[in-house]
OpgC domain-containing protein (Actinospica durhamensis), 372 residues
Amino acid sequence: MTTTLQPQAAIGTAAPKKRTRLVTLDLMRGYYVGVLAAIHLDYVPSLLGLVDGRGALLVSEAEGFFMISGLLVGMLRRRDLERHGLVRMTLNSWKRAGQLYIVAVPLTLLFTWIARTMLAHGHTQVKGGLDHHSNLWGLLANSLTLNYTYGWADFLTYYVPMFFVAPAIVWLLSRKLWPLVLVLAYAGYWETTHVDTGWFRPFLQWGVYFFIGAAAGYHWDDLRQMMGRLAPQWRSLVRNGLMAATAVIYVIGIVALFRPHWFTDNSTYYDFFENNRLGVLRPLLAPVSVSGTYFLIRRIEAPLARTVGKVIIPFGRNSLYVYVAQSFVVFLTPFAFPKQSFWVNTLFDLAVIAAMWVAVRVRFLAFLIPSA
């Protein structure tokens, strides 16, 4: 959900490598946002549901998406800082926060109106979290202050404060204070598991992934150079180790998803990894998983780009548009098509992804949504 990254801004090296890195990130971001619709629809059992975990894995697609968003913000805002200075960098980030705000608040009001209308007509398949009782002025006040958000585009309201504080984070990174950034990000996350942080909770919960990504994005070239200085065998060991760790994390998540009774009696597992996606070790697993996924996709990028990339890459390059478009599809589908059998649910999942692909090609909501 960030401004499209140009190759030279992303890498700053020889042309072929620039393009390779950019396509890899587009593939990752495209997959993350592409399956969000099916995950939110949650029509299981289904074929895709066997793979994506419906947001219940040790590292979810949403966590990966926030990390990639932060990664690109770290790259872009560093470029702004070095080329134009602190003020211009800050204004660019705040402009982005404003763009997301003016999309997020009306969407909350629109989805609230739709849900209340459907309930009034006897339909009960509305998304949870609806404000049933506030009058118009109370609803407006809570929506405008981000105390209330509703619908399947709620991540936008979490991004607004992230983009607002991003200049301070980038400034700290420019002062070589990345350890402080990581500690603050994790401390905010940890607090959500121990303190009632009110409406700040989702910002702190998802912000840890965003700011870990921002730190990595700011130091992208430094990390590449560090990898380049390693001996070939050590470089291979790091890459293969991260890919193997990613596979282990995924397998454990899948086992826990389909054999929950193996884990439900283990309070340590719940506190560390589950706890409604607030397990205290989850932010430590996400960078490993995203890094391992990155190296894996780098290795098979060419065949991916020629095949599923035809769908996924446009998703990655239009992630904000896809995210907002899928929010309408996922919100409205249950009113007309309830979940069914395995193969019918699979068709629903594929139909939603196909609808998103058509939406990207037609861009019927482009006049409402800022570019991403």
Notes: The chain has 17 helices and no strands.
